Each structure stands twice: as C-alpha cells, then as structure tokens.
C-alpha cells in the first residue's frame, strides 16, 4: 500500500492542528509529548492527572472520520469517557466500508459480481494473511451498542463522500431505538472536514452537549 500523504490530506491535518491550537489540548503543541503515532503519551496524561485538578467526571472524547469509529470502539471499552463527539464518522461494518471505498472514486460506475473492487480484495488478502481465524462480527462496534452508556453527539455533512452520511444516520437510528442519549446534526454541503464556520458551530454544539450531560 502507498502511505504517502496527498497535499489535500496535509492541508486537512494543518487545519485540524490550527483549530485545536485555538481551542483545546495545548499539550499537543510540544512534539515531545507525543508517541510514535502522534498521540499524547500515556505518561504525559497521567502527569496531568497527578499535577492538576482534573475533574474525572468531565473527560470527553472527539473523533473525526476513521477517528469517529475509533471513538465508538473506545466508548465500548472504557467507562472513563463521560461524553463524546463524532464528526463525519466512518461507520457500517468492514465490508460496508471496503465496498464503499472500492467505488467511491466513481460511484456511478456500473457494478456487478465481476467488477473489480480493490479495497475488498485487499481486505480479503489481509484477513487471509492473519495468523489466526478472523470473525469480523466479533469486532464490529455496531453489534454492541446495547452496552453503550456514554452520551454521543454526531455531526455529518449530508453530501460527504469521504465518509458516507448514511453511516451517521444509521448510528443515530440505532441509538434512538436503543434509548441511548445522543444528538445528531446534519451539516449542509459535502465537506468531510467542515469549513471554518461549520467547525465553530460544531464545536459550540459539542461544548453545549458536554455541559448538558455533565453530572
């Protein structure tokens, strides 16, 4: 696989960093606080807990795109997060995702059982290369939403092609049916990463939501 980042992705990362720098997480300003994956190191987070008056009842999580799905997985694995926000999140199961991204460059192209689907093919190859049997149902967060206790706010642009709007819509429906606490905001346009004004609005909604569910 080619892991080189396009100019578009580099611009995306710059905009996120600029946004974060203006609002939250000053720890990210110092590269020494990050691990090899550019996440804040666990020991740094523990130091913050030890040295400052951290309200353990006001720990929130935000995830965008694939990070949205990781956010959902984290909520199912941890009781430390008190509320979370998901922007333009990837959803569905791994086969939904691989099929979607196999066709995302030309969604109007005809499809059949004979049509090559590159991402599906790569996923199958990766599963075949695993050292032990793989059951995708065991790792799909959507199958465990009944166990979710954390309130979630969801934002998604209705014409987003970077991650399908229907995935967030489906998540909101499942949360509603299960009686979970959530908000779902549809954003006009096709921005996978919201423009500056949309970012401000989404961030304000996040803060208001976090405050509304705080103990």
What does this structure look like?
The chain is α/β, with parallel strands linked by helices and 215 residues long. The chain has one domain (7-107, 114-213): 3-Layer(aba) Sandwich (Rossmann fold). It has helices at 7-23, 42-51, 66-77, 94-103, 118-128, 165-177, 196-213; strands at residues 60-64, 83-87, 152-157, 182-187. It has a four-stranded parallel β-sheet, with helices on both faces. Strand 1, helix 3 and strand 2 (83-87) form a beta-alpha-beta unit. Helix 4 packs antiparallel against helix 5.
Q: What is the CATH C level class, in words?
A: Alpha Beta
Average residue-wise pLDDT: 84
The count of helical stretches stands at 7
SSE succession: HHEHEHHEHEH
- Which spans have pLDDT < 50 for at least 5 consecutive residues? none
Summarize the amount of helix as a percent range.
40-55%
The strand line-up of the biggest sheet is 1-2-3-4
- CATH superfamily annotation: Alpha/Beta hydrolase fold, catalytic domain
The fold-level CATH name is Rossmann fold
